[in-house]
Amino acid sequence: xxxxxxNKDEKIRKELEKALLTYEKPSKYFGMLREKNELDEYxxxxxxxxxxxxxxxxxxxxxxxxx
Length: 67
Description:
Order of helices and strands: HHHH
Largest sheet: none
Distance between the termini: 34 Å
Shape: elongated
Structural class: mainly alpha
Oligomer: single chain
Number of domains: 1
Low-confidence stretches: none
Number of strands: 0
């Protein structure tokens, strides 16, 4: 791994940590990455959840990625 890639990975890790620990709605962070077309690059597992329907009994909001 190149030094640049290590620095980029560390930056993403710090941004994720900040979002999870300080944002009222951490989903906003993932929404921002989605808008910038960077979600697949860093969090492909979360991108795969877009438009996945949940049981309306337990999750009336429906879609997994509703922010």
